[in-house]
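Protocol step 6 of 9: fold each sequence in the batch and record its structure tokens directly after the sequence line. For illustration, a two-sequence batch is reproduced in full.

Sequence one:
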Amino acid sequence: MILKGKFKKLSERSLAWSFAGSVDKPSRIEMLQTLSTVEPNSMKLLPTWKHPLPEEADEYMKILEDTRFIPCPRGQNYETYRLYEALEAGCIPICIGEPTNEHDCYNKLIGDNAILISKDWLSVKSMIQQINSNTEALNQIQENLTKYWTTHKVNITAHILAALERISKPEEIGRA
């Protein structure tokens, strides 16, 4: 998926939040129970994690394109593809901060305060309800996230290209 910058404004999307994934972890069940009263929403629940079929991936992308907030619970580790999918679709990803500070991995990978991190799912519910009713705030958050994410990807690409350039010219490595 490539961020095209041509997606619906959050204020024009019909789903307050969506989640597609497995419910084989107690924390996810808690998340879904807490957020289920925030409507409209979309939940595609699987008993265990599996790779989607191509038609399921297309369906998932359509749901993302019509969603404002994406809760990003931890998977096998704290980092999850869901966060990047949300950013690519112009959604607002929300994560739960962990007492072990595992969520700091996002500050290292993406940058400080680039995503919303809350203390628990009840706080996330409150945050969604509060921001969801303010179309101006929704669109401003989306604009800020989109600009940040696009710039971040350009910077990462530049660093990779520079590293590849140095590798292709080994005689310059010793001089750097």
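Sequence two, same batch, same settings:
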Amino acid sequence: MTENSFIDTKSRSLTITCDLEIPKGGAEGVVIAQAGMFGGWSLYLKNGKPKYAYNWLAREKYVIEAPDKLPEGKVKLVYDFDYDGGGLHKGGTGKLLVNGKKVAEGRIDKTMGALYSLAAETADIGLDSYSPVTDDYDPWDNSYTGTINSVTLKHKD
């Protein structure tokens, strides 16, 4: 979906809840991503571990990574972001939760305030199409290898 037809994720607190199924042997790839190499974010699995990457104008990159792989079977993966407030481009704290337990937390010092990226960049579920948000995965082969039952984004304010 293009940026103007997707939920506004800029300069605000939000929660991303993903209902996943992890196959035997684990899963890899992008669960959900928005925008690309000049600004955006991605929630994905690398080496079976959940990671969240935030790319601020291709100048600063922030990564929050869980220490352990996701377990096999049904998993509820949540990215929870608490925005500092006080205007545009401010920071906040992001947390990764697996089945209700916090597994990682990190600081994102700056966030996008107006537009993420080029008009061609999109929000995608199951891959990061067009240009990649992060160089942590292959730009041409980053499809999620498990099952995504649902992804829900909600504003917290």
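Proceed to step 7 once all outputs are recorded. Observation for sequence two: Residues 89 and 148 are 31 Å apart (CA to CA).
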